[in-house]
Amino acid sequence: LIGKGGLVGTSLSNYEARLVADNLEFDSPMYRGPINMNLALLSGVKQPLLQGDINIERTTIRVPLSMLLESSDGFYLPTLGLDVQVHVGNRVRFYDPVFYDLNPRGEIRIRRTLQNPALDGFLEATSSRIWYLNSQFRIINARADFNIFQGLEPTIRLTAQSRMINTTIDLQAQGLASNMEFKLTSNPPMSQNEIQTLLLFRSGDIDPNSPEFARQFASAGAIALLEMGVQTRGLFGLEAFAQNRLGIDEVRLVPVQFYDPR
Length: 262
Prior knowledge:
Layout (H helix, E strand, L loop, with lengths): L1 E7 L2 E17 L3 E12 L6 E8 L2 E3 L3 H5 L11 E8 L3 E5 L3 E3 L1 E10 L3 E9 L2 E5 L2 E12 L8 E9 L4 E9 L4 E7 L4 H10 L9 H8 L3 H25 L16
Parallel strand pairs: 4-6, 5-7
Antiparallel strand pairs: 1-2, 2-3, 3-4, 3-5, 6-9, 7-8, 8-11, 9-10, 10-12, 11-12, 12-13, 13-14, 14-15
């Protein structure tokens, strides 16, 4: 960390401070791994400017989805201009045990100001997982495109797949992160409502064409779906825990009422 500057009366002017970090290690609940950065804080005409590069590799970043959706209102943010390039490289993991387990790569440029930032760039992910309707989907391809005119919100295009014993379900999603459109298809073919019921019940060991599935689908009222959603929300939290502790690519837990040992 080095810097220089001058004084005009009691005010600091014509200053420059530079921070260079080479494999600086962090070990916190939200960020675990090294970070490389070359940042400069420069005096500006209207406000100071933070500019430079940040490189992230071999890192786990755990940010709860609820935090991403929270407003920054009520937090004090200093007046600061931004022009920072972030490179997301190899073996970076964005992880939340309930919603996603992503391995993204890409580049994002952060501009405007700290109070009103905007992103420009992209992130792509493969070999990743998301959880939707209480079921785990393996991502085939996913891309988030950031546009400076959209602030922090990306446009997302995603294709993912979930395999049960007798059924394969494909998920396609696209649109702004706050208003995405989801489409489900299956093999063997089923309606959207039938697919959603199958995912919520996690009844992949039941043949969708069988009378048993038809009976369960017919009786799946709103209360039954809610109760099953609460149960299976806990199940996929346990699945994520087991996968990480045991180092297994995929763990499936099935509610006991749907287990068929045959």
